[in-house]
């Protein structure tokens, strides 16, 4: 499912980038990359009607009324996601223990987002594969290389193993 973010949602994402850059210990080299991540969280929040937890903790992004914790992972793309594209979580995030991962893709210009699916933490850990920094996942785009060690599933795996919220 694709969505066109509103002007207000994009503005909110860039406002967060500005706040994050001021407060972060690391330098954000490409603000649009961080904006894509924040925009994914914002669109997921608005679509699902969940409560957002920005800056409250680093273990999840959204929480439902019944307490389910979701971590939103958004990856940038030049075109609509294909079945063998990777949905990944950096191993630097192994400390996180959300109940579910929400996987999304966003166009580089942030004009469109795709909601891929929701996978439970346990299923993702059990079914995902690990690709090392600089390596290809051997699927999807042959030019793609992991920017960090990460666990991943393909879009088709997420769609097959995903749950409804």
Helix-strand layout with pairing:
Layout: E1 2-3, H1 7-23, H2 31-48, E2 51-52, E3 62-63, E4 69-77, E5 86-90, E6 100-107, E7 113-120, H3 121-127, E8 129-131, E9 150-154, H4 155-161
Parallel strand pairs: 4-6
Antiparallel strand pairs: 1-7, 2-3, 3-4, 5-9, 6-7, 8-9
Summarize the structure in words.
It is built from 4 helices and 9 strands, in the order βααββββββαββα. The protein is 30% helix and 27% strand. It is an alpha+beta fold. The two termini are 15 Å apart. The chain has one domain (2-161): PvuII Endonuclease, Chain A, CATH 3.40.210. It has helices spanning 7-23, 31-48, 121-127, 155-161, and strands at 2-3, 51-52, 62-63, 69-77, 86-90, 100-107, 113-120, 129-131, 150-154. The strands form 2 sheets. Strands 1-7-6-4-3-2 form a 6-stranded mixed sheet.
């Amino acid at each position: 499912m694709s969505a066109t973010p509103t002007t207000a949602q994009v503005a909110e994402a860039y406002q967060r980038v500005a706040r994050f850059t001021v407060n972060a210990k690391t330098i954000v080299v490409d603000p649009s990359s961080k904006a894509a991540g924040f925009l994914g969280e914002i669109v997921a929040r608005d679509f699902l009607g969940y409560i957002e937890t920005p800056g409250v903790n680093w273990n999840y992004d959204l929480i439902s009324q019944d307490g389910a914790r979701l971590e939103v992972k958004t990856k940038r793309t030049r075109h609509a996601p294909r079945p063998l594209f990777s949905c990944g979580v950096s191993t630097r995030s192994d400390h996180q223990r959300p109940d579910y991962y929400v996987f999304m893709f966003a166009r580089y210009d942030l004009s469109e987002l795709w909601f891929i699916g929701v996978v439970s933490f346990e299923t993702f850990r059990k079914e995902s594969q690990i690709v090392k920094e600089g390596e290809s996942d051997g699927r999807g785009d042959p030019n793609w290389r992991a920017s960090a060690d990460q666990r991943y599933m393909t879009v088709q795996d997420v769609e097959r193993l995903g749950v409804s919220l």
